[in-house]
Amino acid sequence: MRAVIQRVFEAGVTIGGEPVARIGAGMLVLLGVGAQDSAEDACYLAEKTVHLRIFPDSADKMNLSVLDVDGEILVVSQFTLYGDCRKGRRPSYAAAAAPEAAEALYESYVNELSGFTSRVSTGRFQEMMQVFLVNDGPVTLLLDSRKGF
């Protein structure tokens, strides 16, 4: 699994002009599921996500997690994180999981996060969404479960 994590002042998702989710201060997680991923990847990545120390403490050092600051988390599925652009001009998505498997692991990741905090919102899987955010920092990190084991 791959995640792009952005520290935000606020973020939200709309579909067809209708609001689906909106959060205040916390993190926006763009989540991609790979063909080789498993429930173990979802568990690892969720634990890593909530414990990342990317929020400032009283000395303005990044020492606090989203749990420490009681922040919110917005998770948006994004299969394009597995786009391979090395050949030609059109990305290949061969490394991305099939939609059925990806949805199950996406839900597993969200459920794992929800075990740590109730402040988790989501977009809608396999929908065309408009995502907005106001970066805080900006702080943007890349996580890949395959590089963590």
Which homologous superfamily in CATH is the superfamily? D-tyrosyl-tRNA(Tyr) deacylase
Overall CATH architecture: 3-Layer(bba) Sandwich
Say what oligomer this is.
Answer: single chain
Largest sheet: 6 strands, mixed
Q: What number of structural domains do the residues give?
A: 1
Task: Write a structural description.
- By secondary structure, this protein is α/β, with parallel strands linked by helices.
- It has a single domain, classed as D-tyrosyl-tRNA(Tyr) deacylase (D-tyrosyl-trna(Tyr) Deacylase, Chain: A, 3-Layer(bba) Sandwich).
- Helices cover 21% and strands 38% of the residues.
- It contains 2 helices and 8 strands; from the N terminus they run E-E-E-H-E-E-E-H-E-E.
- Strand 1 and strand 2 form a beta hairpin.
- Helix 1 (39-51) packs parallel to helix 2 (99-116).
Give the tags.
149 residues, 6-stranded mixed beta sheet, globular, two-stranded antiparallel sheet, alpha/beta, single chain, 2 helices, D-tyrosyl-trna(Tyr) Deacylase, Chain: A
Brief overview:
This protein has 149 residues and is α/β, with parallel strands linked by helices.
